[in-house]
Amino acid sequence: MMAAFHYPKIGTMPSRALALLLQGKEITHLDFWRIANTYRLSDPVWQLRKSGWGIQDRRATVPTADPTKRSASVAFYRLPDTAVSAAGNEAQDYVRDVTAWIDKASRKAGAVAAAPADKAAGTHTQGTDTPKDNTGGAA
Q: Residue 85: what are its φ and ψ, rounded to 5°?
């Protein structure tokens, strides 16, 4: 158990990952891509672990959208419920501050919170697969 909690600077990738984890969410690379528009979750997790957050992970094999029916190994990250509880009100204040920063930054940039391709549109079903654009060349 942590003696003191270290909260990363708001606006950084570790702050965005920590805000999700402090909400009791189990997150994957794809979840983080949709929130932070980055392909990289392992580095923020590593930074948070280095600063004392006891992030747990599990791996699962999941299907991809690949036409070869390929599967991929995906990491699911979470904070133990005891760590979330121990962080208490300070953590919930931090989550609100990070969420407010994300909202403000998104409005300022004219961006949307969703990833560039969304599952509802059928363009993306797994974070390990990126859709390929047809450039109009001969098939």
A: -65, -45
